Amino acid sequence: MRPMELLQAPPPGPSPRRGWIDSLGYYYRFYTDPIAFVGNRFEEYGDIYYAPSKGVGLYVLRHPDHLWQVLVKDGAKYGKTHTAFALLERVLGRGLLTTDGEVWRRQRRMLQPAFSAKRLAGYAEAMVDEAERAARGFYAGQVRDMSREMMELTLRVVSRTLFSHDVSGQTDAVAGAMDTLRRSIGVSEVLPSWLPSPGRGRLERSVDALDAIIEEMIDKRRGASEPPTPPDLLQMLVDAVDVEGDGGRLGDREIRDQLVTLFLAGHETTSHALTWTWYLLAQHPEVEDKLHAELDRVLAGRAPTYADLDALPYTSCVFDEAMRLYPPAYTLARRAEEDASIGPYAVPKGSEVIIWTYFTHRDARWYPEPDAFRPERFEPEAAAARPKVSYLPFGAGARACIGKTFALVEGRLLLATLAQRLRFELCEGERITVEPRVTLAPKGGVRMVVRRR
Ligand code: HEM
Question: CA–CA separation, 309 vs 409, rounded Å?
Fold first, then answer.
C-alpha cells in the first residue's frame, strides 16, 4: 500500500477517558488484571486497537506483521521514550535500555564485546559453577521459594561474569531493592505525580540502596592494582573513553547507569524464565521425563559445558517454550519519532505503541492450543513454519536484547545442571498467578518441594 492510501483515522478502540474519576476507574481495572483487561480489548477490536491516554495516541499491537513493521522494518522511526516507562527511566538513567540515537549506538558498540561468543564460552564455566553451588544447597524434602532461589542464582551469575563481583552478603539488599522497585513503579504510575505516595518513597530508598552497592563496586575497581584479564564489562566501562564528551573517561554517573541497567535487565528476566520453567516442568511429568532422558544420555552425570549445548536440543526447547507461555518481557514500548504506519493505518509522529508479546505468544493462529506446554513447538521445522516475529522473548530488530545469547546459554546450563540432580514439586494447594509489573513475575513466589533424582 502506498503511503497516500493509508487510513488517516485511527484503528477502532475504546472511547477516550473523561475526567479523573474515569481515569482512576481505568487504572484500577487495568492494574488489577492487565492481562484480562487487554485480552478483552483484543477480543473486541482485533489485532490492533487505539487507546489514547493523557493526550497521546496509543496503538496496541499483537500481530507478527505489525510487530515486524515497528521493530524491524521501520525500527529507525521509533524511539524508546514512552510515558509508560518514565519511572523506569528515572531508575535506569541513561543506560543502554533507555537511550536512543547516537548515544545508544555508541553504548551498544562499547558493550557488545562483553557478549561475544568467545566471552560467552568463558562465562559458561562460572554459570555451571554457580548452579552446582546452588544445587548443593538444596536438601530433599525442603520447601523453597524457587522465585527467590532463581533470583539469587542469576544475580550471582551476572555479577560474577560481567563485573567479577561476588554478591555474597549483598543478594538480600539487591533483591530487596529490586522488589521494591518493581512494586513502586506500578503503584507510583497510577497516582498523580503531585500526590505524596509511600511507594515513591520506597522507590527512592531502594534506588539509594542499589546505588550504594554499585558505587562500592566502581570505587573498588578504580582502586584495584590488577584489573581482571580479559577485562570484564565493568573494566570496559571504567576504561572507556567518552567520545561524545571531552574525550575523557566515563563519569561515575554514566558507569552507574549502565551497571544498574545490566544488573536489572541481566538477572531478573532470566530468573523469571527459569522459575516459570520449574513450575511448568512440575505440572508436566512427561516433559520432565523427556528432559531427564536427554540430560542423562548426553551428560551421564557430569557437569554440562558450553560445548554440550548443541547436543541438548530438548533442553533448549523446554526453556524456549516456557518463555513463550511466560515471556519475562511481556510488553515492549515505542514512540514514533517521525510519521510512520502500521498495517493500513497512518501513525503520526509522537504516537506511542505497546506491543503485547504475551498475546502474540498465546495466539492460536501461530500456536494451536496456545495454553498447552509443548516444547516440541520449538523443534527447527515447526519453528520455521511460523511467521517471523511470532516469537520474541528478546524483542526484535536493532533494539533486541544484547544479552540474548548470554541468557540462552545461562538458562540452558542452569536448567541442565540443576535438573540433572534435582526435581521440584509444587507444594500442595499452591496456586500460581502471574503478576505483570515491569517483568512477568509469579505473584508471591513459587513454593516447591525439593526432591533428589
Ligand atoms: C531470559 C532473559 C532475558 C529476556 C527475556 C530479555 C528480554 C529483553 C527484551 C525483550 C529486550 C528488548 C526491549 C525492547 O525492545 O524494548 C531486551 C533488551 C535488553 N536486554 Fe535483555 N533479556 C534477557 C536477558 C538479558 C541479559 C542476561 C542481559 C545482560 C546481561 C540483558 C540486557 C539487556 C539490555 C542492556 C537491553 C537493551 C538493549 C538495547 O536497547 O540495545 N538482557 N531484553
Answer: 8
